[in-house]
Amino acid sequence: MANAFSLNIAVCIKQVPDSSGLRINPGTGNLDRSNAQNVINPYDLFALEAASDLKKSCGGTITAVCMGPPQAESALREALARGADKAVHVCGPAFSGSDTWATSLALASTVLLLDQVNLVLCGKQAVDGDTAQVGPGIAAHLNWPHIAFALRIRASENVLTGECSDDSGNFSASFPLPGVVTLSRGHYPLRRTSLQDWSKALQAQIRQLGPEEIGLEPDQLGIKGSPTRVRSIKTILFTKKTEFFRGSAAQAAEKIESFFRKKSSTPFAASPVRLPDPEKNCRIFVTGEIRKGRITPVTYELAAKALELSDEVSCGSALVFVTPASEIPVEVNPPPPADKVFVLQAPSAHPLDIVSLTAALADFFTHARPDIILGGATAWGRSLMPRLSVLLRTGLTADCTALTIDGKTGDLLQTRPAFGGNILATITCNRKPQMATVRPGVFKEAFAGHWPDQVCLPVPDSIIDSGITIMETSVPETPGNSLAGAAAVAAGGMGLGSDGFKLLEEFSILSGAAVGASRSAVDAGWAGLHCQVGQTGRTVQPALYMAFGISGAVQHLAGMQSSGFIISINRDPESAIFGVSDLAIIGDCKEILRALITRLRNRKNGSPEWKDS
């Protein structure tokens, strides 16, 4: 039976280069875009499908909204062919150069002009920038609740419920409309479009909106309205002398094992740093993450980096946690490297949603007035930090791989890779605080000699009353070892298949290698988000990286090409991943995995010793 209410849905889409057509030129190391066509951002397609699904069950309208140059009209035509009722094109020279902060403001202002929109859907991120900032940013500008990384959504009696997945596992969350949701691939297969769909879409009127129509001033748009600036761009040339191997599965397995024994090494052991100094004035802060009572590795990594940066500018660094507990369970957590730890104590004993966490942190930072705020580029951080940056009216640089202080200006220089990591952009922010998220695994974990002083501060109910309810949570089982600090990683891609991932998990258990996966394999549901390696996942630098059935999309290369020794197994001798590999094995990755598993089972009664004794 249909619901008594209807939805007016705005789906924000972006036109991007088709990543399947992007390649790294092996001669120059530069990005080759000659075969790349402009398409709708893949995750935005799932948002369109989710909107169509909701319209069927609840009724209402779907408006596709795109901010972009004139050629972005083709993306809006496709959105109309895929079920949108209306299309709005936000365009004009004034929007050129907008960062994610200015983009989300423009889109939020556009939503307010549309006919009683009560739900905004976005893809979880755009594949060209992979920041995941615009969706949460729109929600913050509108002062609406949001949930991120939804796999499936449904609505009933003015309440939206989403099934989501993040670093901590799977969960369900609901909120009263209006609100914003960002969509992962999830449960929405892409439908086929017909000639009739396209004929109707090509004849439809597209509403054009400029700065005046959406009510924004020139200093709120484009470069002028963008808190972040690209200071410099550097191209990195990656060169590998690749050894190619063709042989039987048994021969390939023997060769892989021999390299494993040579290249595998002991995982990094975190080292202690200087003692905390509670007397220092803390100007650099890290938003800490806790899962199941334990501080996450990326929090220790960022705390160590923050302490290093604070020494450069003669101030203190601090960690900030928001938790229902009165204090951090120190008995199960090594002391983090910070001068102080602030615990924002929430009154509820139930899990806190991202919107409540952000509100508590925004209130704290408004009074603390930090110069720099760092967070992990995890699913948690990608949802929280963009919303926090809007509330603090400052910019945010995503997925950084290097952070330094400019000795002349004192600015934080934030370096992030783009398109496979061979292009490095150094970015600054012209507002305070300067905010950045950092990929897990980029910096080394470190511990302090003893626990810093903890300052517990109560958070009033009014601050964390977001209206979002977290209903169910489940923590994923991680096969084998964790990616964090792993000496060896065995990663699978689309060429491995769902049955191949079962072999990969068995290999992981036998060998001790951590399981990794490409973004496409994670989107297909063959591996969890915690296994994803790449620009939108984890950055890993193991002594040995083994890629089974991974083609080598530029986004995946960004997360693994700094590994010590890379072995790639693929049927296609032209696979892009061979260009960054030390050993390229041309063959059936599943057959080779089976041969490896057999070798391991036969060695020492199934308990192999990978390293020479």
Give an account of the 3D structure.
This protein is α/β, with parallel strands linked by helices and 613 residues long. The chain is built from 14 helices and 35 strands. Helix 3 (100-113) crosses helix 4, helix 7 crosses helix 14 and helix 9 (354-368) packs across helix 10. The longest helix is centred in the N-terminal third of the chain and has 17 residues, at 42-58.
Question: What's this entry about, in short?
Answer:
This protein has 613 residues and is of the alpha/beta class. Helices cover 26% and strands 29% of the residues.
Indicate the topology.
Layout (H helix, E strand, L loop, with lengths): L6 E7 L1 E3 L5 E2 L6 E2 L5 E3 L1 H17 L1 E8 L5 H9 L4 E5 L9 H14 L5 E5 L10 H9 L3 E11 L2 E8 L2 E8 L2 E5 L11 H9 L3 E3 L1 H4 L13 E8 L7 E4 L2 H15 L7 E2 L9 E6 L2 E2 L2 E2 L1 H16 L3 E8 L16 E6 L8 H15 L3 E5 L2 H13 L4 E5 L1 E4 L6 E7 L4 E7 L4 E5 L7 E2 L5 E6 L10 E6 L13 E5 L4 H15 L2 E4 L1 H5 L20 E5 L5 H4 L7 E6 L12 E4 L2 H14 L11
Parallel strand pairs: 1-6, 1-8, 6-7, 7-13, 8-12, 9-12, 15-35, 16-28, 17-20, 17-22, 20-21, 21-29, 22-27, 23-27, 31-32, 31-33, 33-34, 34-35
Antiparallel strand pairs: 2-5, 3-4, 9-10, 10-11, 11-30, 14-26, 18-19, 24-25, 25-26
Which descriptors apply to this entry?
613 residues; alpha/beta; Rossmann fold; ten-stranded mixed beta sheet; seven-stranded parallel beta sheet; 14 helices; 35 strands; 26% helix; 29% strand; disordered C terminus
